[in-house]
Structures are given as structure tokens and as C-alpha cells.
Design a protein that fits this description.
Blueprint (H helix, E strand, L loop, with lengths): L2 H5 L21 E7 L16 H12 L7 H6 L2 E7 L10 H16 L6 E5 L1 H15 L9 H4 L4 E3 L2 E6 L5 H5 L1 H30 L2
Helix pairs in contact: 2-8, 4-5
Length: 209
């Protein structure tokens, strides 16, 4: 599946879409980051020799016990990373209007993966965006209000998915705030363990046939 082709009908002019081909049936987890970078080359699937977003994302996976050295290692493991907001932010905070503008694309992304089991919300913007989607479908938030520190160990579920609230996985701040980097890596490890647990029953039943 060509994700740019699948999403462009929902996107407004100027939105950044992932230049990625992926087997939708292979994706088990979607990780939602905050906002696209100013330069598309620095996104997770960007064409830069060393995309800026991967400079913090890949170390988080390695700290979580998954030795990813490229974005292809991540997608091959059934993990798709995207951004809640598809246009670069113009100030330090992301206005509600920007989240709402990108919401149709994000909702379409989530619908593309028939075997999706988990969603990771990397930061408050991702949490806001996903809660808006959940309210539209179920009438209530997937994640309650409160600090991520207090919420991150609680097993939330919404729309048939396990939801993991965590911290933003890009930007200089995560390199400075080592405690948040450690907690984000712990959350990724918990997600990986959850996904492996989801796969085991199918593997066991297959052996018995």
C-alpha cells in the first residue's frame, strides 16, 4: 500500500504525508507523535541521510530492548509511526485548530490497518487528537485528563485497541529530560511485550493443527 496515495484525498494543501509503502496487514501498532517537522526530509520516513526525528526515536527503541537501526527495522516489526498534526507548527504550542485540521487524515491512517492491536500516544497533542477520534466514535475520551506520569502505567482500551499514553519522542527536550526518555523507552517495551503476547495464542493454535 502506498500511504501517500491512500491519504492524499483527505489531506489539505501543504500537509506532509508519509512517503512509505507498507503491508497494512502487518501493522500491529501505530505510534502517534506530535507534529511533522518543518522540513519533510527530517521526518521518520524522510530522505535526509540522518532524519532528525529518527535521531531520538531509534535510541528509544534500542533502550526498550529492540535493536532498531533504521525506520525499516521498525516497520518490519509491525510498527507504524506517524504524526498527529500534518503541518509544521508555527509556535511552541500546537493550536486546537491545527489538530482538528489534520484529524481526518489521522483517522484514515488508523483505519488502514486491519490487524491493529495497539496505539501509542507520544505526547499531549497525540492524546488530544486520539481522544477527539474516540469521542466521535464512542462518545467518550480514550484517555482521561491528568499527567502522563500518573496515567502511563494504566491499561487503557478504546475501539478494540490497547492504548499506551507516553511522552513525545522527538525534539531536543527529550534529550535533555533523561527521565522522560527512560519512561518513554519503558512504555515502548511494554507495548512490544503486549504485541508479542497478542501473537502467541495464534502461534500456539497453529502448532496444534
Amino acid at each position: 500500500m502506498d500511504l501517500t496515495e491512500e491519504l492524499k484525498a483527505m489531506a489539505a494543501p501543504g500537509m506532509q504525508l508519509p512517503p512509505l509503502r507498507v503491508d497494512p496487514a502487518a501493522i500491529r501498532t501505530v505510534m502517534i507523535n506530535e507534529v511533522v517537522p518543518e522540513c519533510p526530509e527530517n521526518d521518520f520516513y524522510g530522505s535526509a541521510p540522518a532524519p532528525l526525528y529518527l535521531s531520538t526515536a531509534l535510541p528509544l527503541f534500542r533502550q526498550a530492548g529492540f535493536p532498531a537501526s533504521s525506520i525499516h527495522d521498525v516497520t518490519d516489526a509491525g510498527i507504524y509511526i506517524t504524526n498527529a498534526v500534518k503541518t509544521p507548527k508555527r509556535e511552541t504550542t500546537v493550536p486546537q485548530a491545527m489538530i482538528e485540521e489534520s484529524l481526518p487524515v489521522l483517522e484514515r491512517e488508523l483505519s488502514l490497518f486491519p490487524n491493529l492491536r495497539a496505539v501509542m500516544l507520544m505526547g499531549d497533542v497525540a492524546k488530544k487528537a486520539f481522544n477527539m477520534i474516540a469521542r466521535g466514535r464512542t462518545g467518550k475520551n480514550a484517555i482521561p485528563s491528568g499527567s502522563t506520569y500518573k496515567l502511563r502505567r494504566t491499561p487503557f482500551h478504546a475501539m478494540g485497541l490497547r492504548i499506551f499514553p507516553s511522552y513525545i519522542m522527538t525534539g531536543r527536550n527529550i534529550l535533555i529530560e533523561k527521565s522522560k526518555m527512560t519512561m518513554a523507552a519503558e512504555d515502548i517495551r511494554a507495548m512490544l511485550e503486549f504485541i508479542r503476547g497478542q501473537e502467541q495464542p495464534a502461534a500456539s493454535s497453529g502448532k496444534g493443527q
